[in-house]
């Protein structure tokens, strides 16, 4: 590939959305992905709430995606141990919530990019700044290197770009999540609802994607000792069945019938909200976005949507500086990009601090060992987030 391009590291949701947002604004970029092909299976499915749909509308991909998943009518949370249930209707006037297969989202974003935008099998190893031009010099694991016009790190929770920027390491919750998909050839009998079923510190989420496919997850508060669980789907399934041995029979059956390829287990990570408040997310023409900037617990189902919002805001900010009128590689170009990245961080910081703080407190609440800690978490949530669904009303604005 050529030197002096806008380089995005990582073809996850955020990297692809960023390349597409830039493309829609007439700005060329190249995405370098370490995997040999699109990573569109891991994680099974992803919830997109009204704020996420607004961002997808701006990217021009929402219409196709709407047809891939049913619209949910409510959230329902059931505590089996205490026999308590709470329901929240999702008002159609307030926008839509659907759980998409990750494959549908990733494939759709990818298909909208000009051919050749994503280069597979390119694992970034290190970054340094060129001593003359201050541009980032990227070295890949195969020994090749390039000088980029700008570098956008969308390389996830263990980001090399974040490390280069001197960001603190991400932290881990004492919680793991198992995710999977189950196909019902003759249709399932579940309502169009997000159901969360809690029992003995273990939560199971169950959401229909369409009339035959159901996404589910299981959150549990310890780290499995058997190393094989990170690689072997059969071990993941057995572990899930052990964890859910006291849950209703139909939930266990859903796990028994799961599509083996869809099963994955993740140790949950987050960037501390107070680090988000103070960190520098860009240096010169290098910046981070998506999980690399603000990985958070999945308790609000917002991390991926926040990465899509990032993409819209970043492309708009860069486009406002009209790079096409400036000679490529000139110092003015470099300064304009630096300015765009600074503005992006300014616009996004408080949005991601609030999301990640709310998510962090909910995570602490589910893992709190004592009643006193639980009460403190609940009080913090009530004071700081009196409307707990406010975050879905957010509009990242026009591209
Ligand atoms: C259990 C769970 C449930 C979730 N549910 C939801 C939900 O319902 N809704 C929601 O919005 N979000 C949800 N999220 C969060 C969401 O999955 C993430 O925020 C989102 O996938 C992050 O996308 P990303 O592109 O920033 O990073 P990633 O998906 O991590 O992508 C990073 C990409 O960079 C590549 N890469 C990494 N290092 C390098 C390198 N050195 N060189 C080249 N390439 C590299 C990787 O291979 C990968 O393709 C959930 C997360 C979890 C864990």
UniProtKB/TrEMBL annotation:
Residues 5-320 form the FAD-binding domain. Belongs to the 3-hydroxybenzoate 6-hydroxylase family. Keywords: Monooxygenase, Oxidoreductase. It comes from Helianthus annuus. This is FAD-binding domain, FAD/NAD(P)-binding domain superfamily. One of its GO terms (molecular function) is FAD binding. InterPro entries: FAD-bd, FAD/NAD-bd_sf, MOase. Pfam families: FAD_binding_3. The lineage of its organism: Eukaryota, Viridiplantae, Streptophyta, Embryophyta, Tracheophyta.
